[in-house]
Amino acid sequence: MALVTFTPLGFYCAQADLYIDPLRKVSKALVTHAHSDHARPGMQHYLCHTQSVNILKLRLGQRISVQSMAYGESVWMNGVEITLFPAGHVPGSAQVRLIYKGEVWVISGDYKTVGDGLTPAFEAVRCHHFVTESTFGLPIFQWRDQQTVFDDINAWWRENASAGKPSVLLGYSLGKAQRILKYLDRSVGAVVCHGAIAASNIALQESGFDFGEWKDASGGLASLQDRGIRTEESLIVCPPNALRSSWISPLGRYSLANCSGWMAVSKSGDWGGVDRGFVLSDHADWPQLLEAVLATGAEHVHVTHGFSEVLSRYLRETHQLNADVVEKGMLEMQGE
Amino acid sequence: MKSMNQSDRLNRPVWCDAFLDEGGNLIFPIKVSVNTMKGWILERTGISAWLFIECQRFAGSLNEALALLMGTSTGGITAMVLQHGFERWDTWTDSERKEWFLFLLSAMEVEERRLLMSLLSGRSNATLISKYGLGKISSVRDLKETTSITVNAILLYVRPIDRMNTQYELTFGLYKEEGYTSCLRAMLGEDGMGGWLQGLDDEPVLLDWITDNLGERIGPIRSVTVSEVFELQCDGVELSKRHKAGFKAESVRVLKWLRNAENAIAPLTAGNQSMVTSLEWVRDFLPKPQDSGQTG
Q1: DSSP string spanning B79-132?
Q2: CA angle A89, A91, A93 (to 5 degrees)
């Protein structure tokens, strides 16, 4: 029997009785990163990276039982050696390496191989079985250098500020928002964060991440004027669901942009009402996926959520690897 | 008949937004067949056909898949394409368009460029045809001459596709020795998505006319009153010994319903061919097959 099996609850290591990113309530859960499709509430015990602890408690409650470990540190469970390696996806994200009787598995969670200057860079780990994501597993997805994207964002912001129009930038509250914050040009105006992002920011700052100065708008946008912040010149970072609430309404007319990998394709459906799309993703694009898979030297590749059929067929045909698709329905497909 | 619809779709010309001729001048718009465009992309990007189909399915359009793939395979998308995308072609200035096409051209081989130029500028009816089908290595390409013709043909038989009489396969005949020989077939009726298969203005009227004029039943086929003449266009016309009519045609399209019955039946009585094209004319028009031994 294989060391790791694919069950309806998630990836399961029977020898260690450990689930990795489980979907339902289990006793022991290893969480690769704190995004809601990987870290779910209700587990008896959590195991995660040190820098994920604060954000995990923020999202799942302060009273959860959580044990943390650093990158490269090993934990032994019934003969299985468990080690975390940086995945480069979001702050605190990790790949998991499981070794038992010489058999090596790496479950990568979500990852990107190009460093963003905020999270520790991806590290390729040699293994026999590699579990990879395929969110952007099509050749049409090829990211540009992130600095050129941030130059575009800053130029767009400057343009709006000179026209006296507030700029609203959509980004997920964990990872994407902090990556944007780090590279914004503060000379244009103030950077304002939605309450959900502000909470993540505080939790991450406690974990030792630094992404520059920002203003908290959890008290409402109307209160900004009292604090002397000119909204016309400011850039407001908020998660996509904030647009559907009354939180945004004091702003009046504003320019809206989205920061996502899906912005590469004009018809991908995420465009609803957005003036400008910036192609920036925390996931690996097509060349990065291939690079990561080949760098591990794995003979067996298991492809999960996204374009898993496409990527696994490509790996089989072009690189002669034993690539298969992890059963559909086991892991739900999520956007970012 | 088995893959008539499919070949119809693949050989249907698409509008290429623009291209540069050999002198560097912009010429647009131009018609290129979907197959030509796809074959060209597959060769340029070096990905297999199934992978391209997946990309196109997700991107939603041929243009966008082309822009995203072509940009990346040659070392990085230009900022212009990524920012605006191929769909925003209309908003580009002439110099931006020219830059984009120069970039595209620079990615092509010399021989390929010459071939595509001759295709696009309409100097020859040549079509790029892969020797191998989808899914195989398609690096060897064959240049094959094809011909398009426009004829007037008379409606002989119909075959109902569904019991609701919303779709028919029509069989048209050409004039031959004081009679009509069935030669060309085309689909007619509702396409099931709220549109019409041929896109004629009077297509609903024609459907009603067929229902009223059904005649003898010959297996699944019904004969209709021999009186209505249509202007048809077809591509890929070649002489063929396999076909009863002596030639084959692909992607037959109904251009117009010539509603003039008196003239239509004239050839039979008066011996002239004022309306219906004769089979002899088509055979004479087509180029004779060369003795290269390659044609099947």
Answers
A1: HHHHHH-GGGGGGS-HHHHHHHHHHHHHTS-HHHHHHHHHHHTTSS-EEEEESS
A2: 55
Cβ of B65 within 8 Å of Cβ of A266? The answer is: no
- Across the A/B interface, how many CB contacts are shorter than 8 Å? 51
Q: Which of A177, A172, A72 is nearest to A118 (CA)?
A: A177
Query: B149-285: which CATH architecture?
Result: Beta Barrel (2.40)
Domain boundaries, chain B: 4-145, 149-285
Query: Is A267 or B155 the better-scoring residue by pLDDT?
Result: B155
Residues 269-288 of A with CB under 8 A from B: 279
- Which tens digits make up the pLDDT trace of B166-183? 899 999 998 888 788 899
Through-space distance between the first and last CA atoms of chain A, rounded to whole angstroms: 33
pLDDT of residue A263: 82
What is the overall mean pLDDT for chain B?
Answer: 67
ipTM of predicted complex:
0.79
For residue B289, cis peptide bond before it (omega within 30 degrees of 0):
no
Contact of B192 with chain A, judged by CB distance below 8 Å, is answered with no
Domains of chain A, start order: 4-140+283-325 (3.60.15.10), 146-278 (3.40.50.10710)
Q: Which two tokens stand for residue A206?
A: 């406690």
Helical residues (DSSP H) of A211-257, grouped into ranges = 223-226
Residue A108: CA count within 13 A, CB half-sphere: 33
Structure tokens at B97: 């368009």
Q: B48 and A139 in contact by Cβ < 8 A?
A: no
Residues of chain A with pLDDT under 70: 1, 266-272, 327-336
Say how many CA atoms lie within 13 Å of A92 toward its Cβ: 32
Instruction: Indicate the SS3 state at residue B146.
Output: coil
